[in-house]
Design goal:
Elements (H helix, E strand, L loop, with lengths): L13 H14 L8 E5 L6 H10 L3 E6 L3 H5 L11 H14 L12 H8 L2 H12 L14 E2 L1 H13 L1
Parallel strand pairs: 1-2
Antiparallel strand pairs: 2-3
Helix pairs in contact: 1-2, 6-7
Protein backbone atom coordinates (compact mmCIF):
# COMPACT_ATOMS: atom_id res chain seq x y z
CA UNK A 1 0.00 0.00 0.00
CA UNK A 2 1.49 3.42 -0.92
CA UNK A 3 2.30 5.82 1.86
CA UNK A 4 -0.07 8.68 2.51
CA UNK A 5 1.49 12.12 2.28
CA UNK A 6 -0.08 15.06 4.06
CA UNK A 7 1.25 18.55 3.42
CA UNK A 8 0.18 21.56 5.43
CA UNK A 9 1.50 25.11 5.32
CA UNK A 10 1.57 26.83 8.66
CA UNK A 11 2.98 30.30 7.98
CA UNK A 12 5.08 30.09 11.12
CA UNK A 13 8.80 30.45 11.68
CA UNK A 14 11.45 28.11 13.07
CA UNK A 15 10.80 27.14 16.72
CA UNK A 16 7.14 28.20 16.71
CA UNK A 17 6.67 26.03 13.62
CA UNK A 18 8.20 23.01 15.37
CA UNK A 19 6.01 23.62 18.44
CA UNK A 20 2.91 23.90 16.23
CA UNK A 21 3.76 20.62 14.45
CA UNK A 22 4.40 18.86 17.77
CA UNK A 23 0.98 19.95 19.08
CA UNK A 24 -0.72 18.88 15.85
CA UNK A 25 0.94 15.45 15.89
CA UNK A 26 0.30 14.86 19.61
CA UNK A 27 -3.37 15.87 19.41
CA UNK A 28 -4.12 13.92 16.26
CA UNK A 29 -5.84 10.53 16.37
CA UNK A 30 -3.67 9.59 13.37
CA UNK A 31 -0.41 7.78 13.76
CA UNK A 32 2.35 9.69 11.95
CA UNK A 33 5.36 7.59 10.95
CA UNK A 34 7.44 10.24 9.26
CA UNK A 35 7.09 13.92 10.17
CA UNK A 36 9.06 16.59 8.35
CA UNK A 37 9.29 20.26 9.26
CA UNK A 38 10.44 22.53 6.42
CA UNK A 39 11.93 25.98 7.00
CA UNK A 40 14.82 28.21 6.06
CA UNK A 41 17.09 30.37 8.12
CA UNK A 42 16.31 33.86 6.90
CA UNK A 43 17.39 36.09 9.79
CA UNK A 44 15.95 33.99 12.59
CA UNK A 45 18.24 33.63 15.58
CA UNK A 46 16.38 30.47 16.68
CA UNK A 47 17.33 28.53 13.55
CA UNK A 48 19.66 26.05 15.31
CA UNK A 49 17.18 25.58 18.14
CA UNK A 50 14.42 24.80 15.63
CA UNK A 51 16.54 22.09 13.96
CA UNK A 52 17.42 20.56 17.34
CA UNK A 53 13.80 20.85 18.59
CA UNK A 54 12.57 18.98 15.53
CA UNK A 55 15.08 16.19 16.22
CA UNK A 56 14.12 16.06 19.93
CA UNK A 57 10.48 15.60 18.90
CA UNK A 58 11.42 12.75 16.56
CA UNK A 59 10.81 14.84 13.44
CA UNK A 60 13.01 15.38 10.42
CA UNK A 61 14.01 18.93 9.53
CA UNK A 62 14.30 19.91 5.87
CA UNK A 63 16.09 23.22 6.23
CA UNK A 64 18.01 25.61 4.04
CA UNK A 65 20.59 28.15 5.10
CA UNK A 66 20.16 30.96 4.07
CA UNK A 67 17.01 30.51 2.01
CA UNK A 68 14.86 27.83 0.40
CA UNK A 69 15.81 29.32 -2.96
CA UNK A 70 19.31 27.89 -2.43
CA UNK A 71 17.86 24.39 -2.97
CA UNK A 72 16.28 25.58 -6.22
CA UNK A 73 19.57 27.09 -7.41
CA UNK A 74 21.22 23.68 -7.05
CA UNK A 75 19.21 22.59 -10.10
CA UNK A 76 21.35 25.04 -12.05
CA UNK A 77 24.78 24.27 -10.58
CA UNK A 78 26.88 23.77 -7.48
CA UNK A 79 27.05 26.87 -5.31
CA UNK A 80 29.44 27.18 -2.36
CA UNK A 81 29.17 30.87 -1.50
CA UNK A 82 27.06 32.23 1.33
CA UNK A 83 24.59 34.54 -0.37
CA UNK A 84 21.44 36.34 0.75
CA UNK A 85 17.90 35.37 -0.18
CA UNK A 86 17.87 38.24 -2.66
CA UNK A 87 21.00 36.92 -4.35
CA UNK A 88 19.52 33.40 -4.70
CA UNK A 89 16.30 34.86 -6.09
CA UNK A 90 18.39 36.93 -8.52
CA UNK A 91 20.21 33.83 -9.79
CA UNK A 92 16.90 32.06 -10.38
CA UNK A 93 15.30 35.12 -11.97
CA UNK A 94 18.21 35.57 -14.38
CA UNK A 95 18.12 31.88 -15.37
CA UNK A 96 14.34 31.96 -15.94
CA UNK A 97 14.56 35.15 -18.01
CA UNK A 98 17.53 33.88 -20.06
CA UNK A 99 15.47 30.80 -20.94
CA UNK A 100 12.56 33.10 -21.85
CA UNK A 101 10.38 31.58 -19.13
CA UNK A 102 9.45 34.88 -17.50
CA UNK A 103 10.81 35.94 -14.14
CA UNK A 104 11.21 33.77 -11.09
CA UNK A 105 8.40 33.90 -8.54
CA UNK A 106 8.41 31.66 -5.48
CA UNK A 107 4.80 30.52 -5.92
CA UNK A 108 4.90 29.69 -9.64
CA UNK A 109 2.95 26.51 -10.26
CA UNK A 110 5.38 25.44 -12.98
CA UNK A 111 8.55 26.14 -11.02
CA UNK A 112 9.82 22.55 -10.96
CA UNK A 113 9.02 21.87 -14.59
CA UNK A 114 10.98 25.01 -15.54
CA UNK A 115 13.84 23.97 -13.26
CA UNK A 116 13.88 20.52 -14.86
CA UNK A 117 14.17 22.20 -18.27
CA UNK A 118 16.99 24.46 -17.09
CA UNK A 119 18.85 22.00 -14.91
CA UNK A 120 18.75 18.59 -13.38
CA UNK A 121 16.86 17.23 -10.39
CA UNK A 122 19.31 14.39 -9.71
CA UNK A 123 22.21 16.82 -10.00
CA UNK A 124 20.56 19.12 -7.44
CA UNK A 125 20.36 16.24 -4.97
CA UNK A 126 24.02 15.31 -5.58
CA UNK A 127 25.14 18.93 -5.15
CA UNK A 128 23.13 19.33 -1.93
CA UNK A 129 24.76 16.22 -0.49
CA UNK A 130 28.23 17.26 -1.66
CA UNK A 131 27.95 20.74 -0.14
CA UNK A 132 26.51 19.34 3.10
CA UNK A 133 29.42 16.90 3.42
CA UNK A 134 31.99 19.72 3.36
CA UNK A 135 30.91 20.75 6.86
CA UNK A 136 31.89 19.05 10.11
CA UNK A 137 29.05 16.99 11.63
CA UNK A 138 29.15 18.94 14.90
CA UNK A 139 28.97 22.33 13.17
CA UNK A 140 25.57 23.88 13.92
CA UNK A 141 23.22 24.39 10.95
CA UNK A 142 23.47 28.19 11.24
CA UNK A 143 27.22 27.95 10.53
CA UNK A 144 26.68 25.78 7.44
CA UNK A 145 26.09 28.45 4.85
CA UNK A 146 25.15 27.63 2.20
CA UNK A 147 23.60 24.29 2.96
CA UNK A 148 20.30 22.45 2.66
CA UNK A 149 18.69 19.18 3.72
CA UNK A 150 15.66 19.59 1.45
CA UNK A 151 17.10 16.87 -0.79
CA UNK A 152 16.60 14.35 2.03
CA UNK A 153 12.88 15.18 2.13
CA UNK A 154 12.69 14.97 -1.66
CA UNK A 155 14.25 11.50 -1.58
CA UNK A 156 11.79 10.41 1.12
CA UNK A 157 8.87 11.63 -0.98
CA UNK A 158 10.24 9.91 -4.06
CA UNK A 159 10.48 6.61 -2.15
CA UNK A 160 6.89 7.07 -0.92
CA UNK A 161 5.67 7.56 -4.48
CA UNK A 162 7.43 4.43 -5.71
CA UNK A 163 6.02 2.12 -3.01
Amino acid sequence: MPEEVEIEGAGRVTTSLVEWVAKKVNRSPRNYDNVWVVFDRDDFKSFDEAVFAAERNGFHAAWSNEAFEYWLCLYLGRYDSALSRGDWVGILDAAFRKAERGGFEKNREDIFSVLDELGDHEMAKRFAKSVREQYEAEEPPSRRNPCTTVDLLVEQLERALID
